[in-house]
Amino acid sequence: MNSLEETKQILKMYNIRANKNLGQNFLISDEVIETIVESADIHEQDLVIEIGPGLGTLTKKLLEKAGKVICIELDEKMIKILKQRFITSKNLQIINDDILKVDLNKIIKEENRPCKVVANLPYYITTPIIMKLLEEKLDIESITVMIQKEVAERLIAAPGSKNTGAITYAIDYYCETEKIIEVPNTSFIPEPKVTSEVIKLKIRDKENINVINKEVMFRVIKSAFMQKRKTLLNALTNAKVFVSKEEGIEVLKNMNLSENVRAEELSLQQFADISNYIVNNIKKQ
Predict the structure, then answer these.
(1) Is pLDDT at 283 greater than 60 in this prediction?
(2) Antiparallel, parallel or unpaired: β 188-189 and 26-27
(3) What is the per-residue burial (b if ≥16 Cβ within 10 Å, else e) of 189-207?
(4) 92 and 135, same structural domain?
């Protein structure tokens, strides 16, 4: 039985429909499922944390590869299905909770095995989940996720491209990125209105830039992109990152940057250089 037939059977058996409020769209493409699992590079010693498993279509394949799979699911209806569907699976743990409230650090430390995150993320909450995974400094090797294509392109964009946003630099700081596969809306039921994309974020072993205070750097980046249509100079002056426009001009001049440069044109290291200047000036005062 393929994933489409299996999904239809489960939906009919439990008399349920996708919950629009939770952004549920059930994956039915066996090809996409195989690609996700293969690209996540899962081994029998690995712990896999799956976020939002839904009916367990992807879970089924993960259980065949991983030493243990921990599913974190908010919808109690899905929890019931998962427990019954995988009642004989010895390497599965199911947690009924909001992923944003779960103490993942504790879970990973208790398991004490290589950890990878795999997820088909709801579109409306993609960014908060990914930033939680990165900012909590979890001991994970990689994050393989299927998300809305538009968001995926922003996450893995190169500085200077039209898709660059503040989150692009956060991803670049924490990860090496890889585009895996584009997924048409026909791969789901019900069909979403957008195309999806699978990307892989491999966590960096060490920082790839020289920055004194990353919190200051990310505040600078956020300020720069809050007024993206303005020049970097005007955006950072308006946000009080620079004490005055004259100070901003001097900083940019020392970095060999034009007064008309825009946020998306900078590299991550250039944002780090600006934040390093700020930190050093604060220390001198």
Answers:
(1) no
(2) antiparallel
(3) beebeeebbbbbbbbeeee
(4) yes
- What are the tens digits of pLDDT across the range 9-24? 998 999 988 777 777 8
Closest CA to 270 of 210, 225, 216, 228: 210
Question: What's the structural domain count of the chain?
Answer: 2
Amino acid at 220: V
pLDDT digits (tens, 9 = 90+) for 87-132: 999 999 999 999 999 999 999 999 999 999 999 988 888 999 999 9
**E strand spans, the chain:** 26-27, 47-51, 68-73, 92-96, 115-120, 142-148, 175-183, 188-189, 196-203
Using pLDDT thresholds of 50, 70 and 90, give the confidence band for residue 159: confident
Q: Which residue in the block uniquely carries the two structure tokens 């992109």?
A: 225
Do 24 and 105 sit in the same domain of this protein? yes
Question: Are residues 277 and 226 part of one domain?
Answer: yes
